[in-house]
Design brief:
The chain has helices at 113-117, 119-126; strands at residues 13-18, 28-35, 49-56, 69-76, 97-98. It contains two helices and five strands, in the order βββββαα. The longest helix is centred in the last third of the chain and has 8 residues, at 119-126. Strands 1-3-4-2-5 form a five-stranded antiparallel beta sheet, with no helix packed on it. The protein is of the alpha+beta class.
């Protein structure tokens, strides 16, 4: 679902909160989770670690059936490039991965050369 996000899914995002410095990461995984609150750190139930999340503005309405709000969560799994640079994602990235430098409230993150190939590939291209 996260790789299929549309700007309309993110219309009520107010801000992005980073728990880690995003400039140190080639990519983050993004997903849209249902949470009971518009703001604050949401619960996290995945393997790995949450590295950021979005907060919603006051106009964001909860789903009438569940009473929950849809918010983006940014995370990394134990086998991602930041902890295993020579592992599975030494080159390439998971489908839901985007460059954290392209993430803004209300805008879908983008894949870049750095998110797909890694910083070392970008440095080789520039040099």
């Amino acid at each position: 679902m996260s790789s299929l996000l549309q700007a309309s899914d993110l219309a009520h995002e107010d801000r992005v909160v980073w728990l880690e410095d995003p400039s140190a990461l080639d990519y983050v995984r993004q997903a849209q989770d249902k949470t009971p609150r518009r703001k604050g750190k949401p619960r996290y139930f995945r393997d790995g670690r949450m590295v950021g999340f979005t907060e919603l503005n006051e106009a964001a309405e909860a789903d009438p059936d569940s009473g929950l709000h849809k918010r983006r969560v940014f995370y990394l799994l134990p086998h991602d490039r930041d902890t295993e640079p020579e592992g599975l994602y030494r080159e390439g990235a998971p489908g839901e991965a985007v460059d954290p430098r392209t993430i803004e409230p209300g805008k879908v993150g983008m894949k870049t050369e750095r998110s797909q190939r890694g910083l070392s590939a970008v440095e080789r291209t520039v040099a």
